[in-house]
Amino acid sequence: MPKVVKTTINVEGRVSEQFAIVEGAELPPWGEHEELGIVGYPAPRIDGAARVSGEARYTYDVQLPGMVYGRLVRAKQASAKITRIDVRKAKAVRGVVDVMTYENVPDIEMSGRQTRLLSDDVRFAGQTIAVVVAVDPYVAADAAALIEVEYAERPLVADPEAALAADAVKVQPDKPNNLLNGKPRIKERGDVAAGFAAADEIAAVTVRTPTALHNAFETHGCVAHWEGDQLTIYESTQHTFGVREFAAKKLELPMSKVRAVSTFMGGGFGAKFPGSAYTLIAATTAKRLRRPVHLMYDREGENLETGNRGQTLQQVKIGARRDGTLTAIEYSGISEGGAAMGWLPMLEGPASMMYRCPNFRSETSGVLTNLGPMAAFRAPGFVEGMVGLEAAMDELAHKLGMDPLELRRKNIPDTDQLEEKPFSSLPLDECYTRGAAAIGWERRSQPGSQSDGRYRRGIGMASQIWWGGGGPPAYAEMLLNSDGTATVMTGTQDLGTGTRTILAQVAAEELGLPLEQVNVTVGDTLQGPFGPASGGSVTTGSMTPAVRSAANDLRNNLCDIVAQMRDIPQNEIEIRGGMIYRRDQELASVREIMRKLGDVMLQGTGSRGPNPDDVSVVTSGAQFAEVEVDTVTGLVRVLKIVAAHDSGRIMNPQTFNSQIYGGIIQGMGLALTEQRIVDTERGAVLNPNLEFYKLPTIADVPQIENILIDIPDTKANSTGAKGAGEPGIIPTAAAIANAVADALGVRVGTLPITPPRVLEALDAQ
Amino acid sequence: MQPFIHIDVANSEEVIPLLDARSRPLAGGTDMLPLMKEGIVAPERLINIKRAGDLRYIRADEDGLHIGALTTLDELDRHPDVRRDYTTLAQAAAEAASPQLRNMATLGGNLLQQARCWYYRGDFHCWLKGGELCHARDGRNEYHAIFDQSPCVAVYPSDPPAALMALEANLRIVGPQGARLVPVAEFLQPPSAERRTLHTLAPNELIVEVHVPKGPSGSVYLKAMDRATWAYALASVAVAANIRDGRAHNVRIVLGAVSNRPIRALAAEELVEGQLITPELARRAGETALAAARALEHNHYKLPLTRNLVAQALRDIMAG
After folding, report:
1. Range(s) within chain B of domains with CATH label 3.30.390.50
2. Which of A719, A496, A724 is nearest to A39 (CA)?
3. Do A682 and B299 touch (CB under 8 A)?
4. Which of B60, B83, B90, B226 has the fewest Cβ atoms within 10 Å of its own Cβ atom?
5. Per residue in B16-42, pLDDT tens?
6. Considering the entire predicted model, what is its pTM?
7. How many CB contacts within 8 angstroms connect chain A with chain B?
8. What is B55-112+158-212's CATH number?
9. What CATH code would you report for B218-319?
10. DSSP, residue by residue, A143-164
């Protein structure tokens, strides 16, 4: 009998109450020392071969009979009103079937990043102002170049610090000070002034982090296809059910008539939540033309329009008593939001919750500019905020004459200071101890002491805290086929993180089948029940309990059937490795039983239960970096990163490692090489490409040692697992920046720490 | 993209009659195709010379090194004679681009590579593209010139040509009037109002061979990048010298990625000529080499960087 329960969910620090429908009794969690046979063991991705062989079909690869290709046309001005847009030459190109501009696109009201599907009001260079549709993408590109646009130019501001000036140009007419919500966000607990007065030492730092571009392998886009009044949207998305809801609402369609599909996905990193104009442009155009429409961004458009991690300027001040006990933290920061900003990332998150401190105050602002809008980017706010906090912690340790790791260990929080609840689990001390041993922390020098010769080495570290517990609603269904194979069906999606594989492991474990006998269907709203958006590292914590619950339901149904067929008590039946036992006596294989039943199909349904009320579920950890700085060229080379993260039970060490490695490499990019470069006078992004936007190459990747902490969080949910998508990136840039400061004896406060900045710092020494 | 005719040729002789202002030779295509896709060049005819087998060779003899223009950067880097006797060239080829690009990119094409300036490659009708204004001069110029030689401040991007200049290499260029031999140092020239390119090849000419005279006893190429690989130089230095009795003779110092063309550091060469190069002298040579350099708004770092590279290269060459 399903019950409705109300539970609290924390996604990226945004706490909400959710209704959850819970089917049947909540399963007791797998115990901390429970012997499992499949979950927790390394398993290659079940879709790995398809992904690397090119068999996997991504949104970009979708081909349908009669399909036409859209080309997005970008504004070249950063702030202007379009006075004339002439598409006649483009329309005259053979093979062009349609051109949309603000003059003829359906009038659908949008929220967030766009106010209309296409507009004559240009607020950043790269804004989509037209879409050309043609029989192939090359014809569309050629025709797009023939569109004539006249602009009435307006003044612009393309630098967040300049946008704060009293006489700055207004990016949005209703935001007189270019601030999101018109004012800073202030958070406060205790008495900061009293805290600083009680401090023996105070450290203050100013740091800057760059605007970083997501650069997922697969760009944004979709294919829209109508069959009668049924709309199918193939989309590269982090939330299939969100695409369905968005399209149904905006196009005024019943949800039952809309299907969203994202079978394989080439990464999102936070920028691919539903709600963008291109989905609706593709859907409405496909309907009008009666042909499927393929509409994908190219790399340049992707890097100009679909989102970024906004640059920050942060000031952090921390006070402590002689023994290292923190007495006050004051944090202020701005985050660039571009021409549209839906929300302000939680820059102050790390400063407010990483370390125990009774007196805290933060003031953070989102600043609008005439540049491409921000979007969530893998642990938004926390990556940036950790750089500021951990720089200040190292400076404080230096002032106290204390080992920086010891200072952190001394201030491990005993409760979640935001939620005022104890943590379900926070094995930070273990992460510190094991990480320090692996990097050889005792080798760390006094800052600047290793200053002889061409190369200087340094070691630094930083901590991590984040959510990632997930929660309801999340559902799964299972089928047991007549050949003894099982299918897991859920509408969640696999962004490339390995979700499919760990769901198969959970189902096989609970059901007692070998892993090869379980297949998983994800990424299709018609082939499985609701799954949550894959953001905030929630997919594992939300979906694995739901799948376990469905597998358990199916297992109970199978045991019931066997009990009836063999006339034995149900509670004496066990299923292991695809075989059915009565106590230790082998009865038959699952396959034999199912064959006997002919076309009978056994089903199981499951759902994610509520979150615990009395504890706060977080992930935590630490990373340690060793770097070598070439004083001739200024190039920083990372020699080694040691990572130690708590994500509860590790479902699959292989996919877990991949997540941590990927986070570290992306974090290293922010620390050393990646930055959007803007000509602020012209409002032009100069490197929306992979030539001058410098992602780390494989030659930049250091030795990475990922220590598996692997402590099941039995209070969190029935599998004890928490997310791993974001934790890996959170401390990397902060740890590298601290290691470089250790090597140089001087802090490069502006990231990325490029050769120019290193050489300037050395020059100043 | 503008429509074009693609013509295959089997050897170098067939190429010349087909070349004119409306056509371009296509070798590795690693620069030509992106230039065409971006609409920066729009030839009506693309003469595919990839199959001209007579242009792809490396021959080392008494006379020095003869390199066919279609030799790839990868072949250059792997050749044992080049590695041993013309080290700076092998190193420059090895440091260029990525393995995939080096497999395709030819030495002839590399000499002709156009500026990688983001305004030139972007949506700006800049001076080098025939416009009025160098946008980088008052815009973002962290990758740009510290020796000002023309209205344009883009730097010459290729690595091997700086090494070729240090080795005093010549180019054999064929045109309708026959062949001419021109030093790399003269071939690469700052752009002018009439010629908005970083080289002096006429539209009806083709580079067919690079000739490097018998190499000096030592040479080195140092390249600074802002990541481990696959980046254009922030600055580079090619040095060649004969080391006899612990002293450096016939020293050639060439600075790359600091101007519209690689620059010979003549005063620095003079300073170290015939000398025992101590670390202190190497440092002074670096300062001398950069004495005339002037930074733009965002590239001050190039002064210490290039100084450091000169000093390091001289120390390396003395260390053998």
Report:
1. 218-319
2. A719
3. no
4. B83
5. 999 999 999 999 999 999 999 999 999
6. 0.98
7. 90
8. 3.30.465.10
9. 3.30.390.50
10. HHTT-EEEEEE------HHHHT
